[in-house]
Amino acid sequence: MKIIHPDILLDAYSKGLFPMGDSRDSDEVEWYSATERGIIPIDKFYASNNLRRLVKKQTFEVKIDTQFRQVVEGCADREDTWINDLIIDTFEHMHQLGHAHSVEVYHEGKLVGGVYGIHYKAAFFAESMFKYYPEADKVAMFYLHHILEKNGFKLWDAQYYTDHLGKTFGCIEISGDEYLLLLEEALKTECEFVL
Fold first, then answer.
1. Using CA atoms, how far apart are residues 68 and 65, in angstroms rounded to an integer?
2. Among 98, 94, 151, residue whose Cα is nearest residue 122
3. Which of 63, 137, 152, 186 has the most crowded Cβ, counting Cβ within 10 A?
4. What digits encode the pLDDT tens for the residues 95-150?
């Protein structure tokens, strides 16, 4: 199994870089660093009243780290994706080492949504989310926020700002220099990823 070495991957993230494949069929990655970076301020996370009501109804069951690979594969299950087999295998290995996590949303016992990313010290680098059931991805993000806030994380990296992330969760765009300062602070502290 071909993977990116864990030390190389963590070193890259610690410098603001992240890997992406060109397509699902590619077997290589390119390294990126966004000039303008998207982050979700943990203390300013936005959840609509509808989402809060949905969470309170307990329509879904939420778990962490029980079906990590399936979450990554769910995120890759779309027409255009940067998540290739090298990414999937690498992140599964990082998960086994305790550096990658998934938040999983279940409905009637079936995995219907989730989000995954890299956990390094007090930073969480969110990679992608998916849904097979309406609002399941939003529920995953709601619980991811709960985990990051509860455990004292300092940085929630979203890589790129999008209008959807901004309106739905409070994502903002900051300069690359500002991002690196926040990252430097986050890497001074250790955090657990527990629900």
1. 5
2. 151
3. 137
4. 999 999 999 999 999 999 999 999 999 999 999 999 999 999 999 999 999 999 99
Domain containing residue 95: CATH number: 3.40.630.70
The alpha helices in 19-135, defined as continuous H runs, are: 49-57, 68-76, 85-96
Residue 97 resides in a domain: yes
The helices-and-strands tally (H runs, E runs) of the chain is: 7, 9
Within-domain flag for 99: yes
Question: What is the count of structural domains for the chain?
Answer: 1
Q: Which domain holds residue 103?
A: 6-12+37-186
| Token digits of residue 30 | 């390119």
pTM for the full predicted model: 0.96
Grouping H, G, I as helix, E, B as strand and the rest as coil, residue 57 is helix
Handedness of CA 109, 88, 147, 139 (dihedral sign): negative
